[in-house]
From TrEMBL:
<keyword id="KW-1133">Transmembrane helix</keyword>
<dbReference type="InterPro" id="IPR036938">
    <property type="entry name" value="PAP2/HPO_sf"/>
</dbReference>
<feature type="transmembrane region" description="Helical">
    <location>
        <begin position="27"/>
        <end position="52"/>
    </location>
</feature>
<feature type="transmembrane region" description="Helical">
    <location>
        <begin position="64"/>
        <end position="86"/>
    </location>
</feature>
<dbReference type="Pfam" id="PF01569">
    <property type="entry name" value="PAP2"/>
</dbReference>
<keyword id="KW-0812">Transmembrane</keyword>
<dbReference type="GO" id="GO:0042392">
    <property type="term" value="F:sphingosine-1-phosphate phosphatase activity"/>
</dbReference>
<keyword id="KW-0472">Membrane</keyword>
<protein>
    <recommendedName>
        <fullName>Phosphatidic acid phosphatase type 2/haloperoxidase domain-containing protein</fullName>
    </recommendedName>
</protein>
<dbReference type="InterPro" id="IPR000326">
    <property type="entry name" value="PAP2/HPO"/>
</dbReference>
<feature type="domain" description="Phosphatidic acid phosphatase type 2/haloperoxidase">
    <location>
        <begin position="68"/>
        <end position="183"/>
    </location>
</feature>
<feature type="transmembrane region" description="Helical">
    <location>
        <begin position="144"/>
        <end position="160"/>
    </location>
</feature>
<feature type="transmembrane region" description="Helical">
    <location>
        <begin position="166"/>
        <end position="186"/>
    </location>
</feature>
Length: 193
């Protein structure tokens, strides 16, 4: 277990060395990290996917409504799985718990806004990857955009010292598995026809 903790700390520090810490990136990553912003980002991306679909098939289609319902169900399930169930079972403290007096990678005061609950897994990463997976199942052409946003949201949590790297990596896996579970359960491939 000590090996994994050391590896996680090493990767987290490496990410923070690679990503420059300055005012621009502080604001950039805090935009992707704020809980209200991340859901807003996904709603905008859903609208883009629906508008692009509308150009191909005018009018509100049954599959559009099904897509939004699947998205909301998956997003909610992913949040509950990570934030309510897993965090309270595992109870891993956040990085700032280990370094409360002097952050190695200082961020502009007030921008990080890390919650005080537990760290593992990252709910931001869980919901971001779940959202990207569901939207990609609807709009495969722009999967790079959706997963790019999911990666930015996940990296923002490491950059702002709200999570360790493994928190976001496992969060992403949990989100992906949740979305695949829901997509298979509902047999979402029917709404692609």
């Amino acid at each position: 277990m000590l090996f994994l903790t050391n590896l996680d700390t090493f990767i987290t520090n490496f990410v923070n060395i690679v990503l420059p810490h300055n005012l621009f990136f502080d604001y950039f990553f805090s935009f992707f990290s704020l809980r209200g912003n991340s859901i807003l980002i996904w709603l905008i991306l859903i609208l883009i996917a629906l508008v692009l679909e509308e150009r191909k098939n005018p009018g509100i289609q049954k599959r559009d409504i099904k897509f939004v319902a699947i998205f909301l169900l998956t997003f909610t399930l992913s949040f509950i799985t990570s934030d309510i169930i897993l965090k309270n079972l595992i109870k891993r403290p956040r990085p700032d718990y280990y370094n409360t007096t002097n952050s190695t990678y200082a961020v502009e005061p007030g921008l990080a806004q890390c919650p005080k609950n537990y760290s593992f897994p990252s709910s931001h990463a869980t919901t971001a990857v779940a959202a990207a997976t569901v939207i990609t199942s609807f709009d495969k052409k722009r999967k790079w955009l959706y997963f790019g946003v999911a990666i930015l949201i996940s990296l923002s949590r490491v950059y702002l010292s709200c999570h360790f790297f493994f928190d976001v990596a496992v969060g992403g896996i949990v989100g992906y598995l949740n979305s695949i579970f829901i997509l298979k359960l509902i047999k979402s491939d029917k709404y692609h026809k």
